[in-house]
Amino acid sequence: MGYIGKQPASAALTADDITDGIISTAKIADDAVTSAKVAFSLGKVGQVQSFRTTNEQSTSSTSFVASTITDSITCSATSSKVLIFVNGGRASYSGGTAEGTVHLYYAVGSGSYSSIVNIVNSNVNESGGYGKPAMSFSYLHSPSSTSELHYKIYYKTNANTYYLNSGSSSTTITLMEILA
């Protein structure tokens, strides 16, 4: 067994045993600190799923409709969380001013989708112009499930036609299982 300074005779380590007053990383045995002694979760990534689309899609609906921006993941434990990133998807409109609303929905297994969180409200105010730049969004979800989880972008407009992925843009949805 390793020791610092002189070897104590069945006594606890004291300040006198540390000759230079410093306990550096080099002086700590490799197996002295284990993950069981860490007082917090290290948040390891269990798996990563990602989907990217360049398909432009549009809606004239004032109720939420499903986009083709979707991905699925199955967590290895009910204590796992899902870190969700949505990036991309410039917005535009036709027929006049429009305000689009984009939400993240999810479903467990073959169940129905329900909204988790509002991603963005995008006001598009110039005729034929592009709205706000691409979305950049992250969300930590605690689903408490080991069933397959489906995440999908839903969107709607308050008037006219609202487009996602305008002007040759793309959207990526990335799902990361964060182990507890």
Key terms for this structure?
180 residues; mainly beta; Jelly Rolls; four-stranded antiparallel beta sheet
Please describe what this structure looks like.
- The strands form 3 sheets. The chain has a 4-stranded antiparallel sheet, with no helix packed on it. A 4-stranded antiparallel sheet has the order 3-9-6-7, with no helix packed on it.
- The protein contains no helices and 11 strands.
- The protein has strands spanning 45-53, 57-59, 65-74, 81-88, 91-94, 98-108, 114-124, 135-141, 148-157, 161-164, 171-178.
- A hairpin with a 5-residue loop joins strand 6 and strand 7.
- Helix content is 0%, strand content 47%.
- It has one domain: Jelly Rolls, CATH 2.60.120.
- The model has no long low-confidence stretch (mean pLDDT 80).
- With 180 residues, it is mainly beta.
- The two termini are 33 Å apart.
- The radius of gyration is 26 Å and the shape is elongated.
Summarize, please.
The chain is an all-beta fold and 180 residues long. Helix content is 0%, strand content 47%.
